[in-house]
């Protein structure tokens, strides 16, 4: 059984009229956007700016998901990542009223040097790996998995994992409620009952 | 025809490096959480590329679980950030040096 069905050739879908190289062009353009927005987000001093750049990055990642044949996950990426999670970050940043980090250049250099060093090593390894791949240059087929197929597959094969994931969300809800509850003033006397 | 799978994997690796560098180099607790988010996102991208390469839906199913883990992680993580901010008045990881001799 082929899980992913090919995109229909004869249809009114405007995507089928475009030449195939346009997919590659879109992919590279979107990856440039993702990398640029993410590196801007990583290096911003103010957390608010970083979060807004990350929204751009996540929306572009969602478009890449759509290009790679996962339209439902593209929706989820935009709704959950760019919508819910980033808005949660924005709430916290605005609630705490943080000031941007203000440190000298020396501290920044000390902190960034190991990260850049390790990142460069990994980058070189990844480049060598990509360039020395034996079946290099075989492009991926333009397929697409409909949300119906994905949902059916998910609940047929991974129903237990879905249940566990829902428990995980419940536990996260309880945990964040417990951690974020309103702190009362310290008790005056040890005999006082805490309601 | 889109692009070779190795290019997708390369993009995922670059994103992961950016996230890891953010989590390692920044000392703001919220930026560390953001770095973890970027890393999880890169893992999801690699999963979706692999799902397209082998034409199996398992990769896309796993991305849903990654989304679940990311959502619960960010909820608990931000609650922890709030908790430590209330107790210490700072979200700077370098300030948490109470046990330092």
Overview features:
heterodimer, A: 195 residues, mainly alpha, 2 domains, 68% helix, B: Helix Hairpins, 3 helices, 77% helix, elongated
CATH class of the largest domain in chain A: Mainly Alpha
C-alpha end-to-end distance of chain B: 61 Å
- Helix-and-strand structural type of chain B: mainly alpha
Rg from alpha-carbon coordinates of chain A: 23 Å
Summarize the structure.
The complex is a heterodimer of chains A (195) and B (101). With 195 residues, chain A is an all-alpha fold.
Description:
- The complex is a heterodimer of chains A (195) and B (101).
- Chain A is mainly α.
- Chain A folds into two domains: 1-101 and 139-145, Up-down Bundle (Four Helix Bundle (Hemerythrin (Met), subunit A)), CATH 1.20.120; 146-179.
- Chain A is 68% helix and 2% strand.
- Chain A has helices at residues 14-17, 21-43, 47-67, 71-96, 105-131, 147-157, 159-179; strands at residues 5-6, 143-144.
- Chain A has a two-stranded antiparallel ribbon with strand order 1-2.
- Chain A is globular, with a radius of gyration of 23 Å.
- Residues 8-14 of chain A have low confidence and may be disordered.
- With 101 residues, chain B is mainly alpha-helical.
- Chain B has one domain (5-89): Helix Hairpins.
- Chain B is built from three helices and no strands.
- The longest helix of chain B has 31 residues, at 58-88.
- The relative contact order of chain B is 0.13.
- The mean pLDDT of chain B is 89.
- Chains A and B meet through α2, α3, α4, α5 and α6 of A and α1, α2 and α3 of B.
